[in-house]
Write a structure and sequence with these properties.
Helices cover 34% and strands 21% of the residues. It has eight helices and ten strands. Strands 1, 2, 3, 4 and 5 form a five-stranded antiparallel β-sheet that branches. A five-stranded mixed β-sheet has the order 6-7-8-10-9, covered by helices on one side. Strand 9 and strand 10 form a beta hairpin.
Length: 265
């Protein structure tokens, strides 16, 4: 499946983490579409997404703390990976964010949860293969019409995504030498969600490439920073595609994550 970049690019600005849901069932046409994208969007064979049409309450029971309590979702997404595979965390982030953006485009609410959930319960409901593990989940459903005070506090409601300026995230080629697509792709990557909004990605700019790395090798909040960077990778590529630029990813050794290199024709 090719990335529906125009659709997902529009969804990036709309997406917000939602923790309160209307418990009514999701329209079957929307669920069928999301299920189809879970099957068709397989950029890496080692990772996959499963739509589970059951309440995630047992999976998310006790999830408070950094994420806030999640209530009322009638279904959830499970993001799975083969743990022996290299770069499984960033691949799950990339894959999962594509599914999340599709859900957003369908008018559904989501919320990334990694680290603070019950993976064994999620695995039972989603079904796992040999050496597979549920790395992250997201409730999915119609978001509550009104934002709770907790949601407003945790998402910076009324502010523009509360993101660090590019000046704190970028090194390499000076901005006056960037190619036309570069800034748009970086601004799109900058809007990626991350665990407690820690924004661990850093970008090294070349003439025809962007390298993504982590700020340091110390993971926090029981969530891999490489998963966060995988989410940023998907955003960066969507931003590039929206500017008419196609590229390919090369995975790197820590602290590097991956390099997006423009395809030459």
């Amino acid at each position: 499946m090719e990335i529906p970049y125009s659709r997902w690019y529009s969804a990036i600005d709309q997406r917000r983490a939602r923790r309160r849901f209307d418990p009514r069932p999701v329209d079957s046409n929307l669920l069928n579409r999301l299920h189809s994208v879970c099957i068709e969007f397989r950029p890496f064979p080692e990772v996959r997404a499963v739509l589970v049409n059951q309440s995630p309450d047992k999976v998310l029971k006790g999830v408070i703390g950094a994420y806030g309590k999640i209530k009322g979702a009638p279904a959830f997404l499970a993001f799975l990976g083969i743990m022996e595979s290299s770069h499984v965390q960033e691949r799950v982030g990339y894959l999962g964010e594509g599914i999340v953006l599709e859900a957003t485009a369908l008018g559904l609410g989501t919320c990334w949860v990694a680290g603070m959930f019950r993976p064994e319960v999620a695995a039972t409901l989603a079904g796992t293969g040999k050496n597979e593990k549920v790395i992250a989940v997201s409730p999915v459903g119609y978001a509550a019409q009104h934002w709770s005070m907790e949601e407003k506090i945790m998402t910076g409601f009324g502010r523009t995504h509360r993101r660090k300026p590019l000046s704190e995230l970028v090194n390499g080629l000076e901005e006056v030498k960037w190619t036309p697509w570069t800034k748009k792709a970086l601004e799109t990557a900058r809007l990626a969600p991350s665990a407690v909004n820690r924004q661990p990605w850093r970008f090294l700019i070349g003439r025809d490439d962007v390298t993504v790395s982590v700020d340091n090798l110390s993971d926090t909040y029981h969530v891999s920073k490489r998963l966060d960077c995988g989410i940023a990778m998907l955003h960066l590529e969507v931003g590039a595609l929206n500017e008419g630029v196609t590229g390919a990813w090369e995975f790197l050794s820590p602290p590097g994550v991956s390099r997006f290199r423009v395809k030459k024709y």
